[in-house]
Amino acid sequence: MTHRPPAGREVFAGGGQEAGTSRHETEPAGDPETGEGEMETTLRGIGVSHGVVIGEVRHMGTAELEPPTRQTTRDEVPHERRRARQAVEAVAADLTARGNLAGGEAQAVLEAQAMMARDPELIADVERRIAVGSTAERAVYDALAAYRALLAGAGDYLAGRVADLDDVRNRIVARLLGVPMPGVPNSDRPYVLVARDLAPADTALLDPSLVLGFVTEEGGPTSHSAILARSLGVPAVVALRGAVELAEGTVVAVDGSTGVVTVDPDPEQREEMLRIAEERRAALASATGPGATSDGHKVPLLANIGGPADVAAAVEAGAEGVGLFRTEFLFLDSGGKAPSEKKQVEAYRQVLEAFPEGRVVVRVLDAGADKPLEFLTPAEEPNPALGVRGLRTLLGHPEVLRTQLRALARAAEGLPVYLEVMAPMVSDRADARAFADACRDAGLRAKFGVMVEVPSAALRARSVLQEVEFLSLGTNDLAQYTFAADRQVGALARYQDPWQPALLDLVAMAAEAAGAEGKSCGVCGEAAADPLLACVLVGLGVTSLSMGAKAIPYVRAELSRRTMAQCERAASAARASDGGEQARAAAQSVLSGE
Ligand code: PEP
Ligand code: MG
């Protein structure tokens, strides 16, 4: 099933935010002469990074390279062994170098891939295969296939790492075969990158001036690829069935807000897309200053950061502070042990100094599940996402929590910053009390709060709020636990749609409880980065929104066009719906006055 591009397409692009996007009717579009090429003109995936682009499809070079089998002679063994070792080391070093270049969250992901390549057991397996007559490339291919099967069968959580492992294998095998590395296509014209799934090694180095946007067949809204796309600021649609069938060179219009990909848009559709893009650009340019609705209801817009390296982008986007400082990256980079108190003080101080008058919400270490730390996370848990993670890990290692809280207290000393500290994965009042006690014991002068990521915390938010001063909704995990759907599994991406009314109900419960207690309730999950949904969240009573820096201008612009009453009406319409897509359409229709 392919779709042929008519010749001579121009490529044009327009960045911007979601607003009043029209949805085109779905029609078949086969080639009448050959009968070939039945493909819908409108495909729907999940929009995970805002903006609209129209451009030609270029596929990622991710084809699996299967080296031929050949029995080597005994004399060749040392040579093959050397080739294998050199290739593994070169690929690992390249991944590390890409990580250093990319910085931020991408670096941790690429480092993890470099570690996969250097895994001593894997290298031993490769050498065993070479010793019995495999070529270096075949030995790497077979050893990684065995490793892959183990990973894929080890539960959904580890299965999520298979794409990263495949990328490592493709890179080593390509190097040994002397063929180009899989990855971003060579093109001097801008294009829409299409792939089954994007490996972090490639997304981290995408050139936004050439890559207009990307579309993947797999992945979900909280997958690595989605997070990296947002940090690059290119529109992206994931979990789009049929993406890999799009023929090279086909023109597609990608709306990274609605998740709609229009194949071969006709002149009217193109005009409509450009009009939307223009409207969004104008709205972006005209909205400045602190976040607020058009009738002056203030909603602080804060940044999610992974460390000091992300601060510049947050300041540039006009963030009014940090709403989520994910401190685990500091621990992931720390060579298998907790970073020293001194190292932590330095990192925290750099962030706090960047927002002298602003608000900085630091989340204490969130280890376990999708962020395992060898020295803290139990090795054999049947369900890591339901196991010892987040605050549960810290309560089992009080010395780690104590050191982190002490480091935060020292980092804030003498600064006028408005420090808030929160715990991840809090389930009930007892958890909240244990965290608040630990903060007090460490002599921390800050506001203490908790993340609402587990439905029980939302259901009993008033009780939780007896112990702490604020709530922050982690909608990524809250969706995972509400729908019992692992956030790392692409096939379950539908459940990660933050528009799901059940999730909105829980947000409303938490926000109402905070309102009744006179306390604040922000959102720091990916939901806050969707401009339309941001309006709905505000309508539900959420008091601040925290997101990747790139999304802030889009959210600010959208919010500045709506009154509080409109946001409330959109929120009610969304909650009255039966599914995520209907909720979005209902809110859209209220906000565009239909
Ligand atoms: C969340 O779960 O929504 C959240 C913000 O935390 P993380 O994505 O780091 O788990
Ligand atoms: Mg979370």
UniProtKB/TrEMBL annotation:
SUPFAM superfamilies: Enzyme I of the PEP:sugar phosphotransferase system HPr-binding (sub)domain, Phosphoenolpyruvate/pyruvate domain, Phosphohistidine domain
GO BP, sorted A to Z: phosphoenolpyruvate-dependent sugar phosphotransferase system
Cofactor(s) listed: Mg(2+)
Localization terms from the record: Cytoplasm
Superkingdom of origin: Bacteria
GO cellular component: cytoplasm
Segments forming domain PEP-utilising enzyme C-terminal: 289-562
Active site: H224 (tele-phosphohistidine intermediate), C524 (proton donor)
Annotated positions binding phosphoenolpyruvate: R326, R363, N476, D477, R487
Gene Ontology MF annotations: kinase activity; metal ion binding; phosphoenolpyruvate-protein phosphotransferase activity
Biased composition, class Acidic residues, residue ranges: 28-38
Ranges where the record places region Disordered: 1-38, 575-594
Predominant location category: cytoplasm
Keyword Acetylation: no
PEP-utilising enzyme mobile domain sequence ranges: 190-259
Keywords annotated in UniProt: Cytoplasm, Kinase, Magnesium, Metal-binding, Phosphotransferase system, Pyruvate, Sugar transport, Transferase, Transport
Positions annotated to bind Mg(2+): E453, D477
Residue intervals of the Phosphotransferase system enzyme I N-terminal domain: 44-161
Known catalytic reactions: L-histidyl-[protein] + phosphoenolpyruvate = N(pros)-phospho-L-histidyl-[protein] + pyruvate
General function of this protein: General (non sugar-specific) component of the phosphoenolpyruvate-dependent sugar phosphotransferase system (sugar PTS). This major carbohydrate active-transport system catalyzes the phosphorylation of incoming sugar substrates concomitantly with their translocation across the cell membrane. Enzyme I transfers the phosphoryl group from phosphoenolpyruvate (PEP) to the phosphoryl carrier protein (HPr).
Family statement drawn from the similarity comment of this UniProt entry: Belongs to the PEP-utilizing enzyme family.
NCBIfam families: PTS_I_fam
Protein name per Swiss-Prot or TrEMBL: Phosphoenolpyruvate-protein phosphotransferase
UniProt organism field: Streptomyces pini
Lineage: Bacteria, Bacillati, Actinomycetota, Actinomycetes, Kitasatosporales
